[in-house]
Write a structure and sequence with these properties.
This protein has 216 residues and is α+β, with helices and mostly antiparallel strands. It has nine helices and six strands; from the N terminus they run αββββαββααααααα. It has a six-stranded antiparallel β-sheet with strand order 1-2-3-4-6-5. A hairpin with a 2-residue loop joins β2 and β3. The two termini are 41 Å apart.
């Protein structure tokens, strides 16, 4: 067991009441998470807690070093602060700051999920986000409400190079999955719809439209 792994084991024992802590390699060290929510980092045998309002109050009276991450030759200070020897020995404050770090990380994840940009959805990116915005689709909610066929048709009217794969990308984004794992029934329905559209240049009706607009 190396120094960082021993540190993780000791830290886990001190804050075990928070829940089951998982670790994985990140930033040249380890990230610590509970229920996939990262709230601490470990590097070279030192723990860094995520910043929070409680941490800000603590920092007003104590000095803790920020986590420095080197990216492309530049030093970047992350919103994580080292656990000093004094804090390490003060288990009550350590647990309080750790709980606050976890809660802040949870709140941040909830906020991001509620305010996701289109480019952050599966299969999409900045290019698709731009195309969707050009036809009046700016949010995930608007994308879901419009449905895959209406969004594709609006985009196609502006860009005739769009084809069947774009339908798969949009449907996967709506369902929250990669387009490669779309259910075969959904893929076949999209293929049927696209074939009818290209043959008639009109909007055919989907046999089971609700299948294509409900997230799973």
């Amino acid at each position: 067991m190396n120094r960082s792994q021993q540190c993780i084991a000791d830290f886990t024992n001190k804050v075990c009441s928070l829940g089951c802590i998982q670790s994985k390699t990140q930033f040249g060290g380890y990230s610590l998470s509970i229920d996939s929510v990262v709230f601490a980092l470990v590097k070279q045998g030192e723990v860094y807690l995520r910043g929070s309002e409680v941490m800000s109050q603590y920092l007003s009276q104590h000095t803790l070093n920020p986590f420095i991450f080197s990216k492309r030759g530049s030093a970047i200070a992350l919103n994580y602060f080292s656990v000093s020897e004094q804090l390490w020995q003060d288990e009550i404050s350590l647990l309080k700051l750790s709980r606050a770090a976890l809660q802040d990380a949870k709140n941040c994840r909830v906020y991001k999920q509620a305010h996701r940009r289109l480019k952050d959805l599966p299969n999409l990116g900045i290019r698709f986000e731009t195309l969707l915005r050009e036809v009046g689709i700016h949010t995930e909610e608007q994308l879901r409400n419009a449905g895959v066929q209406q969004c594709w048709t609006l985009m196609y009217q502006r860009n005739k190079h769009l084809g069947l794969p774009t339908l798969f990308y949009l449907q996967g984004a709506i369902m929250g999955i990669h387009h490669a794992v779309l259910p075969q029934s959904v893929r076949h329905e999209l293929i049927r719809w696209h074939s009818a559209f290209t043959a008639n240049r009109s909007i055919p009706t989907l046999t089971h439209p609700t299948v294509l607009t409900v997230a799973v």
